[in-house]
Amino acid sequence: MLIVQKYGGTSVGDVDRIRNVVGRIARTRSAGHRVVAVVSAMAGETNRLLALARAAAARPDERETDALIASGEQVTAALTALSLQDAGVPAQSFLGHQVRIETDTAHGRARIRRIDVDGLRQAVDGGRVAVVAGFQGVCENGSITTLGRGGSDTSAVALAAALRADVCEIYTDVDGVYTGDPRIVPGARKLDRIAFDEMLELASLGAKVLQIRSVEFAKRYRVPVHVRSSFNDSEGTWVIEEDSSMEEVSVSGVALDRDEAKLTLKNVPDRPGVAARLFGPIAAANIVVDMIIQNASADGTTDLTFTVPRADYEKARGLVEQVAREIGASGVASQLDVAKVSIVGLGMRTHAGIAARMFEVLASEGINVQMISTSEIKISVVIDAKYAELAVRALHDALIPPAPGNPA
Amino acid sequence: MLIVQKYGGTSVGDVDRIRNVVGRIARTRSAGHRVVAVVSAMAGETNRLLALARAAAARPDERETDALIASGEQVTAALTALSLQDAGVPAQSFLGHQVRIETDTAHGRARIRRIDVDGLRQAVDGGRVAVVAGFQGVCENGSITTLGRGGSDTSAVALAAALRADVCEIYTDVDGVYTGDPRIVPGARKLDRIAFDEMLELASLGAKVLQIRSVEFAKRYRVPVHVRSSFNDSEGTWVIEEDSSMEEVSVSGVALDRDEAKLTLKNVPDRPGVAARLFGPIAAANIVVDMIIQNASADGTTDLTFTVPRADYEKARGLVEQVAREIGASGVASQLDVAKVSIVGLGMRTHAGIAARMFEVLASEGINVQMISTSEIKISVVIDAKYAELAVRALHDALIPPAPGNPA
User: In angstroms, rounded to a whole number, what is the distance separating the alpha carbons of residues A96 and A132?
Assistant: First the structure.
């Protein structure tokens, strides 16, 4: 098999841990597989470099910041190759521009456009382990780009897709994907398998196991992803295409996101074009709006409520206040201490009544639902932040069966 | 003017020092010049990375070591560009492969083959400062290479040559090139000017101001080099083509090299081909032999004495002992505590008697000369290491005039 293995910052945190990674790669190779290893920067290194950037410039330019922080993965890739060679395993490091992983020019959040895998293929077919610096690419004009936080996941899955690898293994410091955050839900259990679409919803809902774009890649190119621990040999969670056995589970996981803020534009004149006047400037400021609710009232005005990432709250508030004056709304209200709790499951498509059950559970705990948003396989609610853990635990207990729903 | 400025590791040792560098670049630019800045890794960074390489592998592969240590200059180049932008100076960083600086594949000591300056020219003509990561290049197959210790000097001079820059300024932590090491010779003084050939001899004789290959480049392409301090605005030393005024000085400097070891092959049968038998294997082992002396004696045998870098002593000794057995020499003697003291000066070509004066001075101090080697503009002697400082001081006092020999 051709296996792409991705090792996160904790797994390559120092030379000793890199040696552990080398041991795992060597065992994989001894089992007869070809290996492409994708490595992150040593834990803490990206933050150290970003601190240097902020010390050098009040508003660091994105191109130069990318050139700076990409050095972190460069160091790990070279050290991993050196350590493999030291263990008698032929190896060669590849930087983004050496692979070559071509991206657009959106520094700090670049998207992969094209991957040339000839060099990697030559390396692995020649018996070498190819060690690729994750997180980085190169744009058309030769500048170094980076793919955003967690971008090494996307590097790994994209490489697996381009190489038509048999599996992409994501090594991390947890055992796999859980039905809920174990720090909040004592009964949370590891999932053996999860469908791409479920994982997409979970990733976008605040479960930080995989970068969401890596799951999009995996889904589009049907790359089986195996999320597992770098500290033991247990099977982790397979993120794969939906199959019939999965349908049996109604809810696969409960996710919590505390990083949103809620804004309400009050008594908006209820006429066409108002939403565009509001969300146009917000989109132009690169703020991603998550949930939107509009309540028409009898007096011909309406309240428009929406959520944005908390980091963008100040910027959004300024824009909304300006729009409020322009369109004659009566004012702007906001709440920062909100939490979004979501349940995700393929089975929700066929099992009726999951939404009703969710609201019942929350009501029985005295938790007021402020906003609701649904998709085919998920329901999200915004609630007061102080009820967040209680809501997650109650929903997990009520909706997720205690025994594994997947055949072991 | 188009000016290439090179800043060493001490000058870019932290973000505050980088800000000083930025101030100097900004002033140069305000004076109407275009600037290409070449930066080294932060002081200590290359050694830190090399220590990681040695922790990862007992015998670190040179390709991967280059990929690893090149990250040091990458960080400084990006930080310097960020800091320039923060000061309102448009700037863009360039890595070796982005410039592009093409080298051969001799990792760790690569030689520059070709430089494409289109990108740099575009940057400086567009009003930006081009900040180039020194020390690094890229070979034909896309691997990162490094130019050896002090390689950023060579990067700077080579770029100045390729760009036909008006001057290459080397900013360092000393004021310029001195007639002797001020730590040893109290009367040592800064030279205003020195000829390429003199600088070549001094560089190769242990004066560590400039990497010798940078001087070769400067000489070949006639790049005026200005060695000066990054901590003040004083004029430093101009390394330039020989001119008539220089001829007046007989001796420009006294250099000391403590990094050699002496080996003697005793009672070698005095027949053709013996030297080849000896120095063939030594060259094959990549050991650079410096001085060679052969004393024929009356009994048909000869003693062959030569010096090698002390770092290569063990390897050389093993090879010499093997050759001694093969050719029937009586044995091998060696001495590690030797020092090479040299005087350098263009004037030696026309001023007779400098050598005689040198031996006189040494004899009057009771210092025995073990080996002698001369070129058109230098005389080197190997002496007992314990007399090294004494010899340097005595020669400096006797041969170098106390007042500046160049018109101020």
Answer: 7
Q: Which two tokens stand for residue B6?
A: 């090179």
Closest residue, chain B, to A90 (C-alpha): B61
Q: So what's the pLDDT on residue A341?
A: 94
**Residue from the list A55, A61, A142 with its beta carbon closest to the beta carbon of B15:** A55
Tens digit of pLDDT for each residue in A49-106? 999 999 999 999 999 999 999 999 999 999 999 999 999 999 999 999 999 999 999 9
Average of pLDDT values for A161-171?
A: 96
Q: Is A82 on the interface with B (CB under 8 A)?
A: yes
What per-residue string of b and e applies to A281-294 under the rule 16 or more CB within 10 Å gives b? Answer: bbeeeebebbbebe
Residue A218 covered by a domain: no
Domain extent for A11: 2-173
Place of tokens 């760009």: B163
How many structural domains comprise chain B? 1
Which residues in chain A are closer than 8 Å to B95, comparing Cβ atoms?
67, 144
* A359 within a domain of the structure (yes/no): no
User: Does the residue B32 lie in any domain?
Assistant: yes
| pLDDT tens string A168-197 | 999 988 889 999 888 889 888 899 999 999
Closest CA to B256 of B385, B112, B76, B120: B385
A residues 3..42 contacting B (CB < 8 A): 15, 18-19
Q: For residue range B29-67, list pLDDT tens digits in order.
A: 999 999 999 999 999 999 999 999 999 999 999 999 999
CATH of the domain at B7: 3.40.1160.10
What separation in angstroms does the CA of B278 have from each of A57, B90, B91, B272?
A: 59, 58, 54, 12
In a domain, A140, yes or no: yes
Interface predicted TM-score of the whole assembly (ipTM), two decimals: 0.79
pTM (predicted TM-score): 0.83
Measure in Å the smallest separation between the Cα of B325 and chain A Cα atoms. 36
